Each structure stands twice: as C-alpha cells, then as structure tokens.
Amino acid sequence: MTWPNLTERLEGDLVVLEPLALHHEQDLLDASREPEIWRWLSGSVPSRAELHGWLVHSLGEGEAGREGPFATVQRSSGRAIGSTRYLNLRPEHRGLEIGWTWLARSAWQTGANIEAKLLMLQHAFERLDCLRVELKTDARNERSRAAMSALPAQFEGIFRAHMVVPYGDGVRDSAYYSVIASDWPQVRENLQRRVTRKRGPQTVKDAAPPIVRGVSQSTERKVTSPAVRALAHGEIDLVKELWEALQEHHARVTPMLAGYAPEREVADSWRRRRAKYERWLAQPDTFVVLAERDGAPIGYAFVTVGPGHASWASGDRIAELQTLSVAPGARGAGVGTLLIDEVARRLDAIGVGEIAVTTTTTNIDSHRFYQARGLRPACIVFFGPVSGL
After folding, report:
1. Neighbours of 352 (CB within 10 A)
2. CA angle 107, 109, 113 (to 5 degrees)
3. Those residues with Cβ within 8 angstroms of residue 244's Cβ, 6 or more apart along the chain or in another chain
4. N or C: which end of the chain has fewer CB within 10 A?
5. Taking all residues of the chain, what is their mean pLDDT, rounded to a whole number?
6. CATH architecture label of 214-388
7. Which are the contacts of 315, defined by CB distance < 8 A and separation ≥ 6?
C-alpha cells in the first residue's frame, strides 16, 4: 500500500521542501562538507561517489513508495542546503517517521530546520491525515534530542542496542519521540511562533492588537499593542509593582510556602529582591525585558546567563529565567508569550541555546505555559526547615 501525494512541494518563508531529484546533487555535495553534520549519521563526510550513491538509493526508495525524500532548499538563494524525508511508512495505521535530516552547518540555528519540521508535520497531519508522527535519534545525540523536545514531541523511551551504525562502537541505543494528532495544534502554534522569531522580531506596528473580550462582538474594544524593550540598569524600580503582584500570585497558588517562608512586609520583600537584581545586573549578559502598554509596565522577564554547570547542560553557557511576571490585568493577553519570544531572540543573538526555569509545583498554569514552549520538567527542588531532616 502506497501513500498518494507523499512528497508534494512544501513552501515556507525560509525554506522550500522539494521532492529530491538528481539536479540537487551538486548543491547537496557543497552543503555536506562539514564533519559535524555526519557525526550521528554516517560518521564521516561523504565523497562525491558516496553522496551520489546515497542520492540514487534515496530516489529509488521514493519511486518504490517506501520513503518520501526531500531536498531542503533555502528560499533566499534557491540552493539545496540539506535533506530530510518521511520513512517507516504505515499508511494502514496512519503513521510515519520524519528522519534522515541533515543541513549544511551554515544553516544551523537559522530557523531552516524548525520550518522544515513545521511543513512536514503540517503535511502529515492536515493532508495525509496521520494519527502519529515519530522521530528517533541516537540516544547520545543531545542536540537532536533537544530539538525534538522543543517541537515539543513526547519522549517515549530508549530502544537499547537498537541499530548497527558506522561510527563509535558500532551499536546505538535509539531515543524515540512522537507527535500525535491531538498534540498537533499546540505543536503547530509553537513552531509557527519560533519561525516568526527567526524571521525577526515582530514590530508593534505589525502585531495584531489584543481584543478585550466579555462584551458583544459589535462592541469589542481594541486596546493598544504592548511594546517590548530592554530595561536599563537604572530603571529597575519600574518592575517593583510587577514583582509585588507576582508574590501575591504565588501566595494564592502555592499557599504551603507560607509555612516555610518568614513573614515579610511587601516593601522588605522588594528590597531583598532588588538587591539580588542589582548583583545579577553586574554580571555579563544579564538582561531584563520590559513590556509596556501606553508607557506603563505590564510585564517583565529577568534573565541571567552563566556557565553550563549542570550535568544535563550541553553548552558552555546556560540561561536562567529568574523572574517572569505579568500584571494581573494583562494576563491571558499574550504578554508572557511576547516576553518569552524576546528572551529567546536575545539568547539566540548571544549564542546561548539552553534555558532553565524554576516554578512552584502547584503553579499549573505556568507548567502548561513552559511546556507549550518546548520545555520539560527535569528536576524537583525540595524546600523546608533543616529541623525536619
């Protein structure tokens, strides 16, 4: 049983996925010269003859209906910069895999892979009517696993001694991930947001203003779109009320903290937090993003950057979101999303690829928000008096 229309031309703003063809060969040869591309695939840079053999084999698999190979074409140049494909086709069960993905090293971190995944997942769920799309990688390939988690795809486990491979000790464990049809709306929204960010920050002029609900459609009132900017060091007191609102929110959603934390006046709480902010702001790469509407602060994100000291951090530096606060009257209007988009853009610009966020265990809304952005819970912090140990 074959899958009709498996490899249609899929067009995005950054890349176009074209059915793989012989005329892509020279571009793909040029794109494939960096050894880092092949570390978890073939283990070495392919020669011209090897790449030709790979291309001919891929075309044969496509013609036989066993796979659906694409060339990833950079829209701005019209040149092929890599390849990806559908494989492990199970049309009778409405499932397939996305894999054998590689890109020129120069295309990493440009949004090309993000948009390619958006195009392929959209085609799979909205045109091929898939129930399940799976992805797998060498369990040691932390970069690929992080990209799958950021879709976000669901981690399903490790297949031990799963494949014989031409690198390392010759055997790999495979980490499996999946997106199913019920996940797709959330995944699509996240990928669209990330592609938009890679194209450049959205200007206030271009942003659609939020709508105040709760009134009839004929009388809905448009409000001014928020603006986002960096907070200068000397402006830290602008976020005082937002910090205090966050503390009130924590007291509501995590009341058990009152049994451990000492009672403090609001002013004292801000004094302590302000002193910590001042210390952090003296460190390199620390930044604060402020959201304003009509000149009034309605939200902020405070981010520090330090060494990747945790064993699970794969880069030399890792960001930590120390505070994300949105004014009570602005919650649910996309301000948090706007702030996180700007945080991600700034971290991309300084080459920081990972971020850690701490939230209370009972703050379910924040859990959902960060998971929708591709983050996953990794640690639990236990808090209490030493006398209880």
Report:
1. 20
2. 70
3. 266, 269, 270
4. C
5. 86
6. 3-Layer(aba) Sandwich (3.40)
7. 308, 352, 353, 354
CA atoms within 13 A on the CB side of 367: 9
Nearest to 345 by CA among 230, 229, 203, 197: 197
- 10-199 and 214-388 in the same fold: yes
Closest CA to 91 of 127, 137, 136: 127
Instruction: Give yes or no for a contact between 55 and 70, defined as CB atoms under 8 angstroms apart.
Output: no
Gyration radius of the chain over CA positions: 24
Cα of 158 vs its chain's centroid, Å: 22
Structure tokens at 92: 């009778």
User: Percentage of residues in the chain with pLDDT exceeding 90?
Assistant: 60
Q: For residue 119, give every residue at least 6 positions away whose Cβ sits within 8 Å of its Cβ, in sequence order, or none.
A: 10, 11, 12, 15, 17
Q: Which residue has the tokens 């090309």?
A: 112
The CA distance from 145 to 157, in Å, is 12
Q: Who's near 293: CB < 8 A, 6+ residues apart?
A: 223, 224, 225, 226, 227, 330
Q: Return the higher-pLDDT residue of 2 and 145.
A: 145
Domain locations along the chain:
10-199, 214-388
Identity (one letter) of the amino acid at 345? R
Which residues, at least 6 apart from 41, have a Cβ–Cβ distance to it below 8 Å?
A: 100, 102
CATH homologous superfamily for the domain 10-199: Gcn5-related N-acetyltransferase (GNAT) (3.40.630.30)
Burial of residue 323 (CB within 10 Å: 0-12, 13-18, 19+) is middle
3-state secondary structure 78-136: CCEEEEEEEEEEEHHHCEEEEEEEEECHHHCCCCHHHHHHHHHHHHHHHCCCCCEEEEE
